Amino acid sequence: MSPRTPRNVFLVGIDVDSMGGSQRVLHTLAQGFAERGHRVDLIGIRPSPEPHTYVADPGYRHATLYRSPPAPAWRAASFAERLHPARLREARAERRERELARARLARRFAAVPDGYVIIGSPWAAVWLNAVDWSHLKGIGQYHESFFQACHSPNLQLILRHYPQLEKAVFLSEPDAADFRRRRLPNATALPNPVPFTPAAPAPLDTRRVGAVGRLEAVKRLDRLVDSFAAACADRPGWELHLFGDGPLEPELRAHAERLGVAGRVRFRGSVREMAAAYRELSVVALTSEREGRPMVLAEASAAGVPCVSFDLSGGVRELVDHGRTGTLVPPGDTAAFTAALRQLVEDEGLRERYGRAARGQVAPLALPAVLDRWEALFEEIDR
Predict the structure, then answer these.
(1) HEC string of 203-216?
(2) Could you report the per-residue pLDDT of 2-60, keeping only the tens digit for each?
(3) Which CATH fold would you assign to the domain 8-74+94-193+366-382?
(4) Alpha-carbon gap, residue 47 to 65, rounded angstroms
(5) Start and end of every Glycosyl transferase family domain (predicted)?
(6) What is the DSSP string of 76-87?
(7) How many CB atoms are closer than 10 A to CB 146?
(8) CB-CB neighbours of 144 under 10 Å
(9) Domain locations in the chain?
(10) 3-state secondary structure (DSSP) of residue 187
(11) Does domain 208-364 have CATH number 2.60.40.3080?
C-alpha cells in the first residue's frame, strides 16, 4: 500500500463535540484524513450537552450513538429504592438504549471490509468491548500525560485494554517510554496536530494576556486572575481575555471583582475562529493543575504568541522551550508565575524573540506533517 491508498478510518470518542483539546484534535484529524481521500467516520458515543462546531464543512461522516447526554450519577439510598418500579423501568430503558447504540456502531463497522478504529480515550475502549469489530485494526489514544494517568483510573484502563490493540499512541516520547516501562509494549508517540498555521505571526502589541479552555476547576484560572492582577497592577492598558465557557464563570467574575480588575478581565465565551483569536493576544498563559500536551500551547506558538506556563509534563516541555520560546515555572508557584508574566508584559523585545522561536518550535506539528506520521503508522501496522 502507498501512503495515499484510501482507508476506512473510524475515530470514536465518548463525547466528540464539546469544546476541548481532545475534541478539536479528533475533528482536525477526521477532516485531514478525509481531505487525503480516506473514508472517515467520526463517532461520538454520547452527544455533548454543549456542542461546538469545529469544522464548518466537514468532509467526514459524523454520528452520535446515544440520543441524549448521560444522566447525572445516581446512587440508591436503600435496597428498597433500588428495586422501586420506577427505577427498574429507568434501568431497563438505559439498557435498551445502550444495546441500540452498540448495534448502530456494529452495523457501521460491518459495512466495511477492513480499516482502522482510532479510539479517543480508554473509557471509549471500555465501551467498545461489547461491540464486534474483530475485522478492523485498533489504535488507542491518550490525550493526557503518564503522570495524569497514574492519578486516575485511566492507567489501569489503558494497561487492561490497550495491549490488545495494534498500537497505543501517546503525546510525547517520555510518556510512551513510561507506559512501555509499565509493560505496554505497543506504546508509541504521535503528537496532536495544530489545526491551523497562520501565514503571519501575531503582532504582539495588543496588550492582552489570554487563556483558552473550559472554565472549570482543573484549569485553575483563579490563579491566572491573581497573577494578572499583581503583574499588571501598574499596567492599566493590559487586559486578560478568557476564551471558553464553563461552570466557574460566575465565580471567576466575582474573584476579578474582589481583586479590583473586573473591568479588565474579558470573558469571551466559545469562539469558532481560534486562529484569529490568538492573533489578538500578546501573551498566552497556562495555570492548570495538570496537563498532558495542551493544544493551547501548540496553537499559541503556531500563531507566534509567547507562552508562560507551569511546568506540568514532558508534553508541556516539548512545546515550550524554557528561555527560548517561552517561560516555564514550577507547578503551583504563583509568585514565580506572576514574575514571569510581568517580565513578558514589560519586555516587548522578549515577546517578539520568543514568538518567532515558538513558530519554529511547533512547525513539525503542522497538520500535513502529523498526517504523514499517521499514514506511516498505518503502513507499519499493515506490514
Answers:
(1) CCCCCEEEEECCCC
(2) 446 899 999 999 999 988 888 989 999 999 999 999 999 999 999 998 898 899 899 99
(3) Rossmann fold (3.40.50)
(4) 8
(5) 203-359
(6) -SSHHHHT-HHH
(7) 26
(8) 23
(9) 8-74+94-193+366-382, 208-364
(10) strand
(11) no
